[in-house]
């Protein structure tokens, strides 16, 4: 495909997303109906779509319309590209710019330039204080790919060497050597031997740092285990008995095969099958995902106040339920991939106020720390 044809494909997909389709579904549908597109085309179109969603507000202002064409026109103006060279109307390129189309845009207001919904902005500012604007700006950039070198299978150096054999360049993070940032070849990771043989797992830096903060424990319950990212990270410490649970057991379907690949032992407990108490219970709760909006930018525009309120209620219920499984003097860890304090510090403070747990430590990670946004609090049972 020519670069201009890729742009036209992105415009079509963006229009479907703007009319309500989830981004992944719209991309998949386009791929299936466009067998002529190669993997390079698909990757480039995906990047165009996701970049435009990350910067939806500012690009719509610049491009003069919240449409696929408006967003791509906004992209041209934001990145100093000449739109006349792209909107040529030739072959499969976008149709020529209509008279006046170029003049409809304007400079984004200060609020639009942050690329956050209006209703989120006060929550964002209240949660992040002086970092609110830099974090919002960082959210409009593409996220790096992070891997966790799995200590049950390899040292970080061995994992890096194996990745290199498949053309992937990765580098250890100074503060946590098992966290590897992919410098080159990110799209090759899922086919690499290091990944297939369990030497590395895909996991952002912030949950890795959060798991590293967890107290040492022999018996751990991962109460909201989902695909098992936290279970596997905890199991990789060795000498630990990990039980994974999720209210929706189907979410754990892949966990046994992931654990086999990683050489980890994880026990699966369905609801009603959790026995006894644990030294550490981890609750990686459902949340707004506002810390990962770089990776799932359409979620940024779909979240609303009602959904956030529901999530805060669900999180509070999970803390109350999960707390029952913590042994006396044991720990309860609460995690979200959100930056909104209602889901984080306020949630934990309210729980400490109504329970027999006291706050031991907490930390917010943001893209300013090179990671996704993430929150972890560790509470101790009195
Ligand atoms: C953020 S995801 C977990 C991600 C997972 N820990 C990982 O690292 O891959 C939240 C999970 O909480 C589960 N969940 C929702 N409500 C729950 C509840 N009341 N009790 C336990 N799990 C719940 C969801 O099914 C979902 O899998």
From TrEMBL:
List of catalytic residues: 337 (nucleophile)
GO biological process annotation, one example: RNA methylation
InterPro entries xref list: MeTrfase_RsmB-F_NOP2_cat, MeTrfase_RsmB-F_NOP2_dom, RCMT, RsmB-like_ferredoxin, SAM-dependent_MTases_sf
Pfam families to which the protein is assigned, alphabetical: Methyltr_RsmB-F, RsmF-B_ferredox
Binding residue positions for S-adenosyl-L-methionine: 246, 284
Record key words, sorted: Methyltransferase, RNA-binding, S-adenosyl-L-methionine, Transferase
Keyword NAD: no
Nucleotidyltransferase keyword on record: no
Assigned protein family: Belongs to the class I-like SAM-binding methyltransferase superfamily. RsmB/NOP family.
Protein name (Swiss-Prot/TrEMBL): RsmB/NOP family class I SAM-dependent RNA methyltransferase
């Amino acid at each position: 495909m020519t670069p201009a044809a890729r742009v036209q494909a992105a415009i079509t997909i963006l229009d479907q997303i703007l009319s309500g389709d989830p981004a992944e579904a719209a991309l998949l549908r386009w791929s299936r109906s466009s067998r002529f597109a190669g993997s390079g085309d698909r990757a480039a179109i995906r990047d165009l779509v996701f970049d435009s969603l990350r910067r939806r507000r500012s690009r719509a202002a610049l491009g003069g319309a919240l449409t696929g064409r408006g967003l791509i026109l906004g992209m041209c103006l934001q990145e100093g590209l000449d739109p006349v060279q792209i909107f040529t109307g030739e072959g499969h390129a976008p149709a020529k710019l209509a008279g006046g189309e170029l003049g409809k845009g304007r400079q984004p207001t200060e609020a639009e330039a942050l690329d956050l919904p209006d209703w989120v902005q006060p929550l964002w500012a209240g949660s992040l204080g002086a970092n609110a604007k830099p974090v919002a700006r960082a959210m409009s950039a593409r996220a790096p790919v992070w891997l966790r070198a799995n200590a049950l299978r390899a040292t970080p150096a061995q994992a890096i060497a194996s990745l290199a054999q498949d053309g992937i360049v990765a580098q250890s993070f100074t503060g946590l050597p098992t966290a590897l940032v992919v410098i080159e070849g990110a799209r090759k990771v899922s086919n690499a031997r290091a990944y297939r043989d369990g030497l590395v797992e895909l996991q952002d830096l912030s949950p890795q740092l959060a798991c590293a903060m967890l107290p040492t424990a022999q018996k751990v319950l991962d109460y909201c285990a989902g695909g098992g990212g936290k279970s596997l990270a905890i199991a990789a410490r060795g000498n630990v008995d990990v039980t994974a649970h999720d209210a929706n057991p189907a979410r754990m379907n892949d966990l046994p095969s992931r654990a086999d690949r990683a050489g980890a032992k994880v026990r699966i407990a369905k609801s009603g099958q959790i026995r006894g108490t644990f030294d550490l219970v981890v609750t990686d709760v459902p949340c707004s995902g506002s810390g990962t909006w770089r990776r799932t930018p359409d979620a940024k525009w779909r979240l609303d106040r009602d959904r956030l309120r529901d999530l805060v209620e669900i999180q509070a219920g999970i803390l109350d339920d999960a707390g029952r499984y913590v042994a006396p003097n044991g720990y309860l860890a609460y995690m979200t991939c959100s930056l909104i304090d209602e889901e984080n510090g306020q949630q934990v403070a309210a729980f400490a106020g109504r329970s027999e747990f006291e706050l031991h430590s907490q930390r917010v990670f943001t893209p300013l720390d090179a990671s996704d946004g993430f929150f972890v609090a560790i509470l101790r049972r009195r």
